[in-house]
Amino acid sequence: MTVEVGMLAPDFALPANNGETVKLSSFQGENVILYFYPKDMTPGCTTEACDFRDQHESFKGLDAVILGISPDPVDRHVKFVEKHGLPFLLLADPDHQVAEAYGVWKLKKNFGKEYMGIERSTFVINKEGKIAKEWRKVKVKGHVEEAMEFLGEKL
After folding, report:
1. By CB atoms within 10 Å of each CB, which of 62, 83, 102, 104 scores lowest?
2. How many CB atoms are located within 10 Å of the residue 130 CB?
3. 31-36 and 64-70 as β-strands: parallel, antiparallel, unpaired?
4. Looking at domain 13-154, what is its CATH homologous superfamily?
5. pTM of the entire structure?
């Protein structure tokens, strides 16, 4: 299954680095930046998380909440958040059910090896809970600014 712009975003409940279970539906009335990334503490994922961190206040000014999802366990998310001072929640999806619901759990290739993993992707979910924008196969450089620009112009 995959999602498309205009669809109601699939709801979920996942454990977060703050020790709580986070439900997407609890953010109704706010814009949500939902970004999927492969792995904590890796160069690209750290850059992306820090870019979102650095623009966190600007996103808040646009009524947007940032949520990051990866297959990493909660304890690894806690270390990642503490190490980089991330002011938003990271959610653990170890069985990749949410990644599959959003169509970002994909066959990947690296150095001739094939494996299943997260395709770096971001979704903007509007205040009504519908997908307003999606980016798949995200290139980290400039992506956070692109997401903020979309929010500022379209929502």
Report:
1. 83
2. 14
3. parallel
4. Glutaredoxin (3.40.30.10)
5. 0.96
